[in-house]
Design brief:
Blueprint (H helix, E strand, L loop, with lengths): L13 H12 L6 H5 L2 H19 L3 E5 L5 E2 L4 E4 L2 E4 L3 E9 L3 E5 L3 E13 L5 E5 L2 E6 L4 E6 L12 H4 L4 E5 L2 E6 L2 E6 L3 E5 L2 E4 L3 E6 L4 E3 L2 E4 L3 E6 L4 E3 L9 E13 L4 E3 L3 E12 L11 H5 L5 E3 L26 E2 L45 E3 L5 E3 L20 E3 L3 E3 L3 E6 L4 E3 L3 E3 L3 E6 L4 E3 L2 E4 L3 E6 L4 E3 L1 E13 L4 E3 L10 E13 L4 E3 L2 E12 L9 E2 L8 E12 L15 E10 L4 E5 L5 E6 L4 E7 L8 E6 L2 E6 L4 E2 L24 E3 L7
Parallel strand pairs: 1-5, 4-6, 5-7, 6-8, 7-9, 7-10, 8-11, 9-12, 10-13, 11-14, 12-15, 13-16, 14-17, 15-18, 16-19, 17-20, 18-21, 19-21, 20-22, 21-23, 22-28, 23-29, 23-30, 24-25, 28-31, 29-32, 30-33, 31-34, 32-35, 33-36, 34-37, 35-38, 36-38, 37-39, 38-40, 39-41, 40-42, 41-43, 42-44, 45-51
Antiparallel strand pairs: 1-2, 3-4, 26-27, 44-48, 45-48, 46-47, 46-49, 49-50, 50-52
């Protein structure tokens, strides 16, 4: 329900947006050379692969490490006390233990370091330090355990709370040039001074079992980080994987094309200053304390006093229908009750006959949450209102306090973050974030993959545009589920559980003069404590299969357009049912091209109530069992025929609606038209409805 001021902005030509979408969605089936779009980066991958195969099939010049004396067979190696300097290109095999010393690379050309049971520690600086080389290859010999450590062992805490990190530099493994890691062995990297492994150029991981602990960033490169394979585990006081070159728009990228990645970071999980592109891989990221703490619900709940609880809360918090509040006009309000309750027979299936060909309609079962909503910590990260820690209501602008100001002390704790474009076209991704889970300062495209997401703030957020054309998106916990200024859903299976709005087109942007939410295909299920489908401008339903279970509180609506900005809700295709409280309910406008019907019941219907829609001949065209309380129903389908009647059965009560217009409902009901309660003119509801039972209100 948070509305932002409309700003006169520039509209990008549709052809350019379409071209960008075609370009970006092609990533999933495009060779890496096209994905990375960089000759330097492609050369890195090619050289890394060549050096890796060469190391696999042979052995290098032997360097034996020992605290009692280092031996080296090659004339290209200089030993001075506990320091080894490699001055010629080639392949070198390191074995043994150096408890205080360093390996230094200062050679033109390519240098491969085969780690064969090597353990290197430098308590005061970089353990492996490449000041000069064209390419440094770290190769992990099969079956070996290796370790590289800088500094002395310390607890990994938030980098922002660690004064020693602020002035630190370097890494346990550091290279001024391209660096890659491959092989079938294991490598433990401990960056107790600053970063784990870092490059001033490009960094690639092809294979290997790699574990990183770092007081600052785990894996960091200036120009790009690419993961092609391997198993990577990172624990970091700041970002897990990071690329940060902001001086060239072609650099500062992160590409995840495979591998098994697990990150636990106090900062961002994976962060790119420019482009973050995920095409494949298994990714598991927890940032900060994870999503163990939900933000407060929307400010409308706060203003109204007691708030509904989140999914799966204890049943003792449920208020019966007899204990429900009344509105100022003495009409009955939705009671405060447990959200997310599910009757025993609810199996998560979309109603029969709805999904298009090739879609089985099954949506994942909505899981429960067993924790109570906690009071706000005094910040809402861009939300327009919150309760402070002492429970008093405070206001804020649309750019409110960010995670930088949160009690965690971290400089942002987003799971996947891009300052430019974020693209997901494949992979199995699990995210638990104490901030946004997926965040782009620009645009975002999701065309494939499987995402399981929980977040303290937004699950998916893009400052500008978001396009979803495929994939499985399961948001189990969020403040707002999906948010961007322009949102287009063209496919995929999406399930959203939100403490505030489910899907929200809003914010400020330089790409359009009005926010817009368009659904043209896909399966969408929303369970929200705020608005369900919300646009600060226009909301268009042109296709797809949509279920919205909106707020049980009269301060929000299952459907919400920016009517105050001249926006409207229209339906031109697809099948949608939207249920919730009636106080702010909104239905489809008369400018729609597909019939819709709206019904407001005189009493509150509890979770487990069956809603059935029948056509003029008594044939059921839709059936749905609610998982929470409601007293408004909005439905649209191409099975509704203009000029005929339909029957909406809610529990044991039948409501017959004459489909005399595109948008139909009782003109005397609380929300009989696109305007809705408190939204100005009520238009587009010129039909009539009659309760065939004893109810006196529709």
């Amino acid at each position: 329900m948070n509305k932002k001021m409309k700003t006169a902005l520039i509209i990008i030509p549709a052809v350019l947006i379409a071209a960008a979408v075609v370009y970006c969605t092609a990533f999933g089936s495009t060779p890496i050379s096209f994905i990375n779009n960089s000759e330097e980066l492609n050369e890195l991958i090619d050289v890394a692969g060549m050096l890796s195969e060469k190391a696999r099939s042979g052995s290098g010049n032997a360097i034996t490490l020992s605290d009692s004396g280092i031996t080296a067979a090659s004339t290209g190696v200089t030993v001075s006390g506990n320091s080894v300097t490699i001055g010629a290109s080639g392949t070198y095999t390191l074995t043994g233990t150096l408890s205080e010393g360093s390996i230094n690379v200062g050679s033109n050309g390519n240098v491969t370091l085969i780690l064969d049971g090597a353990n290197i520690t430098n308590s005061s600086g970089n353990a492996i330090n490449a000041e000069k080389a064209d390419h440094v290859q770290i190769y992990l010999k099969e079956g070996t355990e290796n370790s590289v450590t800088s500094g002395k062992e310390t607890e990994i805490i938030s980098a922002d709370e660690n004064d020693e990190v602020k002035d630190a530099s370097g890494a346990a493994i550091y290279s001024k040039s391209d660096i890659s890691v491959s092989g079938d062995g294991s490598l433990n990297i401990f960056g107790y001074i600053n970063n784990g492994i870092a490059s001033a150029d490009n960094l690639a991981v092809l294979s290997g079992n790699i574990t990183v602990e770092a007081v600052n960033n785990g894996i960091k490169a200036n120009d790009s980080v690419t993961v092609e394979g391997g198993s990577i585990t990172v624990k970091s006081g700041n970002d897990g994987i990071k690329s940060e070159n902001d001086s060239d728009t072609a650099l500062g990228n992160v590409y995840i094309n495979g591998g098994n990645i697990k990150i636990n970071s106090f900062g961002d999980g994976i962060q790119a200053i420019n482009e973050l592109n995920i095409t494949d891989g298994v990714i598991d990221i927890t940032t900060g304390s994870g999503a163990s703490e939900s933000r407060m619900l929307s400010q409308e709940f706060d203003k109204m006093g007691d708030m509904p609880f989140g999914f799966g809360q204890n049943n003792e918090n449920t208020v019966s229908a007899d204990e429900s509040e009344t509105n100022s006009d003495n009409s009955e309000s939705i009671p405060r009750m447990t959200e997310g309750e599910q009757p025993a027979d609810f199996d998560g299936l979309m109603p029969e006959g709805i999904p298009p060909a090739g879609v089985d309609g099954r949506l994942p079962q909505m899981p429960g949450e067993d924790g109570n909503l906690r009071q706000g910590r005094g910040e809402m990260n861009g939300k327009s209102g919150f309760r402070s820690g002492n429970g008093e209501y405070e206001s804020g602008d649309s750019k409110g306090a960010t995670a930088e100001n949160s009690s965690s002390g971290t400089a942002g704790s987003k799971a996947l973050k891009s300052d430019g474009q974020l693209t997901v076209s494949g992979g199995e991704i699990k995210l638990s974030s104490s901030d946004d889970a997926l965040h782009s300062n620009g645009s975002m495209i999701i065309s494939g993959g499987s995402l399981s997401v929980e977040a303290t703030d937004d699950a998916i957020h893009a400052d500008e545009s978001l396009t979803v054309s495929g994939g499985e998106i399961n948001i189990t916990k969020s403040h707002e589920g999906i948010e961007a200024y322009l949102i287009e859903i063209k496919g995929g299976n999406i399930k959203v559980n939100a403490d505030d709005d489910g899907i929200n087109a809003g914010g400020s942007s330089d790409i359009a003069d009005m926010a817009e939410l368009v659904v043209s295909d896909g399966n969408v299920y929303i369970n929200s404590a705020g608005d369900g489908l919300d646009s600060n401008g226009n909301l268009y339903i042109n296709g797809g299969n949509i279920i919205v279970e909106g707020s049980t509180n009269n301060g929000n609506g299952a459907l919400d357009s920016g009517s105050e900005n001249g926006g409207e809700v229209t339906v031109n295709g697809g099948t949608i049912i939207a249920i919730g409280a009636s106080g702010m309910a909104e239905t489809f406008s008369g400018s729609s091209s597909q019939c819709s019907v709206s019904v407001t019941t005189e009493t509150t219907n509890q979770a487990g109530t069956v809603i059935s829609i029948k056509d003029n001949n008594g044939n059921e065209i839709y059936s749905f069992t609610s998982t929470k309380s409601f007293n408004s129903v909005v439905f649209s389908s191409n099975d509704l025929v203009l000029g005929e009647n339909c029957t909406v059965t809610v529990g044991d009560k039948d409501y017959t609606v004459e489909l005399n217009d595109i948008s139909n409902g009782d003109s005397g009901s609380q929300f009989a038209g696109a305007g809705g309660f408190g939204r100005g003119n009520r238009t587009g509801a010129n039909g009539s409805a009659a309760d065939n039972e004893s109810s006196s209100q529709v």
